[in-house]
Amino acid sequence: MTKTYRAVLAGTGGIADAHVRAIEATQGRVKLVAAADLDDARVRAFTARHNVEGAFTDYTTMLRAVQPDLVLIATPPGQHTAMSIAAMEAGASVWCEKPLCGSLAEVDAITAAEARTGRYTSCVFQMRFASSTAHLRALADSGQLGRPLVAVCNTLWFRDAAYYAAPWRGTWAELGGPTMGLGIHAMDHLLHLLGDWTEVRAMAARLDRAIEVEDVSMAILTFANRAVASVVNSALSPRQETYLRLDYQKATVELTHLYSYARDNWRLTLAPTAHDEGLLQSWQSFPPDVGSTHAAQLSALVVNLDAGTRPLTSGAESRRTVELLTAIYKSAFTGEVVQAGSIGAGDPFYHSINGGGRKI
Fold it and tell me: What pLDDT sits at residue 3?
């Protein structure tokens, strides 16, 4: 008999409906039994709309009363670390919206709590979980594409004054600008496809928005496999686009979308010298299409819960992404080339992404 995992949701704002849809897609494997929000009217409207039994305005009270198997966290980012640790200490696994947390110190605190409790906290990085990405990784791992050489990773989005009207947005206290809050998805996707990064050179600026943090950043990354990538994260781009391009020895692979994608968003261009019909046929042999949705990731998480295994976007994998974001900020603030693994406990950027109070 398969287990039904009892879940609770912290935060009933805009992204909460995506979590509900993901739960519904599990076809009974996950059941949402309660939700919490500081706004009593909002949480009661949410639970009534989705036929959820429990409505709370205090997170700790909800954990104690419900004793869930799984906690979904969709609150403002500054609350993620404390909520994740509290959930694990209450015996639950955690699925937390991005950014998972605001510093490497907080990642390591979450990891310590995992070791202490035997539970895991995974980050919402749904771009990894589309079947088309698994297909590309399989082709790359088989060597059919040749070595990866050059990549482009652009998150060109538009966020206006109304978006930043929420008091927790656009501040260092709530974890930065488009580098941390927008481009994180595409950059995590890039790391999932190319592996470990080794160094970063970056800049960040505030060009047009009346906010405390950056509204644009750019970076050049070097990878352990010697590939290089350019990265742009923008909140200023009227024609919005998320664009990932990977130039392998034998082909260029491109992905163009905005907030989610499926197989039709990809394009393969063979190298002029390749003439490889076998590669073209392999590329066209896509598996059944599963898009880059919360539902796809929650489905994979249920498999981990059944097996008692670590979810893909927890532990070292989530830390690698947070470390890259931290390194981009450090390089932008200091002008230094930042090496992977160089930001330790004695570094101010280990404890906060703006190095303890630096300003753009």
Answer: 96
